[in-house]
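Example record used in the benchmark description.
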Amino acid sequence: MSLLKRIEKGQVSGGAGQPPAGPGGAGGLPRPAEGGGSGLRQRRESLYDMVSGQVDIKDLVSQRLLSQLDPGETLDLTKGEELRTRIDELFNAILAEENIVLPKNERKTLRDQIVADMLGFGPLESLLEDPTVTEIMTIGHEKVFVERKGRLEAAPIHFESEEHLRRIIDRIVSPLGRRVDESSPLVDARLPDGSRVNAVIPPVAIDGSALTIRKFSKVPMTVQNIIDYGTATVELMEFLRACVIAGFNCIVSGGTGSGKTTLLNILSGFIPADERICTIENAAELQLRQDHVVRLESRPSNIEGKGEITIRDLVINSLRMRPDRIVVGEVRGGEALDLIQAMNTGHDGSLGTAHSNSPRDTIARMETMVLMAGMDLPIRAIREQIASAVHLIVHQDRLRDGTRKITRVTEVQGMEGDVVTMSDIFIFEQTGIENNKIVGRIKPSGLRPKYIDKIIDAGIQLPPQIFGIGRK
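Model output (structure tokens):
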């Protein structure tokens, strides 16, 4: 029975709190006119208004479409255009069968929403298209938050149900060969544009599925961008460029959301185009522009608990691929040992990121991560390996006002006794707060780097003024 006939027979009632259908009732049908014919016509003419108040047309059409499509089909990104055509045909047929008459603009809006739900990312589409949004976070299907300019705010969207949100999560992870279910409720993934995705579903997520998307700009950030934003200075970026070209082993450190991966992407762009680069990531998001780049991505185990490929596996394997540079998206476990050994055995110029609160903490974290590899090594031996391997730590922070700044560039100089010796080359100095914005400057410490000869050997001459030497 069509929707129109169900309404005419009174089988579709008003929503919660609405009066029953009846003559003149707020939720009811118009009273038929004398003779009945014009009343039926009046009902048909006002069908859109009645349906919009009493029946979720979108839900009705979506359910009908889903019943006629294989759910697996909608997860196959290679059939996008074919499915879009088929959905269009089914959409028009269902509206005709249900006698649903909509204005042209409303019809297009409804169709676009349904296509977004079935082939895209549903209500998230508008946020993904918004260039001012840098992060999207859900708490269950009703609460969606976004980050704009470093500040969190509620978003004016929601999902229809937990099932709706789960469908979107499946659409994100399935094309990557990943899964999320009760036996594996945590998953890392990425969107086609490289944006990073993390999803946690019940029972681990108590209040409903938690989806977090770290957006990446469609246009990669450039050196000029981070200088304009005040994240770095011209002098600092000139120094970092020289360090990368000269083959310094660099670790970009910082807290969550501080912009480590963005900075790593920019530093990777300084690697000469004639070198072979291997990138290793949990979810591939680096956007290197060189031609000779081998991109490797870890893989979780399958439903039988087999087939896992870890970051450590990829670091070890990359050493057999004749890389000039190894770039690890995030060092967070036993792979730290293998990366340090690679840095110490001829793979100079390797890069990576690590979570920490300061350059000194980065060294401590790397010690812990090496121990996670299961090697029973003395702490002093680990520190000697780290001090020998890592030349530079670039630390970036997200400040209280939401801005991101490189706050320290620290050279690792070696060992004195049992302590790793370090020296700040650049440091951010806060001078005050104006209009709720932190005011300060990134300034050189006045010390020339110990490894300046490595830069000179690469044919790069840096003026002493970059390091604050000779300035008045």
